[in-house]
Amino acid sequence: MDKRDAFYSTIPSFWDRLYGEEYALYDCFPIEPKEVCSIRKATNEVYRIYKKFTQMLRHAPDETFIDLGFPEKALPFLKLSLLPYETVIGRFDFVQTEEGLKMIEFNSDTPTFIRELFEVNGLVAEQFGMDDPNDEEAKYLGKALRNSIFHCAKQIGVTGHPYVVFTAHEEDIEDRETMKFLMKTAQIKGAAFVPLHQLKVDAGRGVYDGAGNQIDILYRHTYPLEALLEDVAIDHFPIGIECMNLVNERKVGMLNPASAFLMQSKAVMAGIWGLHEQEHLFFTADEHETIDRYFLPTYLDEEPFIEKNQRYVEKPAFGREGDTIVVRENGKTLHSSKQTTYNHYIKIYQKYACLPKTLIATEAGKKEAHLLIGSFIINEKASAFGYRAGAQITDNLSYFLPCGVKGEREWI
What we know:
By secondary structure, the chain is of the alpha+beta class. It has a domain at 38-89 and 129-262. It contains twelve helices and 21 strands. Helix 2 (33-57) packs across helix 11 (285-294) and helix 5 packs across helix 6. The longest helix is centred in the N-terminal third of the chain and has 25 residues, at 33-57.
């Protein structure tokens, strides 16, 4: 414990403990160079499927979006496409199975786990005498952020240096310090961190910081769009809707863009799987092969699994951190999350994938834990990845398990 605390105390403003519990492990999970390559390959190929499907989905009628679980309030904004890529920072979650890597979901709008993988993983790997598989990815992330901000500014007609504000709930250390890390990495002249509660939305005019300065681009990476749409002031002024109206009117830019939200619904996986199962010509033969390799059977009802007596997972279309998850088989509930925060969203049903186990070093000694791989797609290119270790349902109490590579750096 002393060695662990001494090490993490050297990393300023990092949340190595969350909710009073150990979060970042003083341990380094060894991986092979070929694993780095396979995770990056899977990330790139799965993203291409998502992009093709969502570009088609953008032209669908409103009824289709409702069927996929999107909030009715989001409908006026779902077809916005203001950048040359659908999302700036997205994260796929993969499981390593006997059949290879399987993707279980895509957080395309507000993925966390950023500073852990783009900064801290490398520090831990060095401490344990291993190579960081994410070496140089922070530089790429900074370049991608600057590129996105440039395109966003151009779309709203801003010339020169835009005033970029990074925002989050100030009291949440993970959200706040994630945004400050992104701001530091982006190296944008004149950018500022402004807590969410200090922002002011003036309908028809713009978004302003606490000092009354008009914001050109609002980076709300840790504030989900579905939550923003429900944001209402004490006097019942619809802050979120009016903010999105300003985005629609190009009076303020927003990152992640609204197009990232179009990929966020887990029901998108059911749409992709449905076309694949029909052998639909929308996907090429190679794309069908990619779906078969990396996707799990996913539906908008549970009957296909009940008929085959297969174990499956029930998830809300919008949900995070293992909240509102149920694992079932033969009509019986095998596991369920304690929280049911997202129970009001429609559910999707996905074939169960057993997370592999490994031994991890914690303050309390060696423990057996399940592994989940988080892999980032940054401006349409696979980037940093890493591991969460915890229960069979990965939740916000799971550990961050740093990883490192021994041997030749074959992935570069």
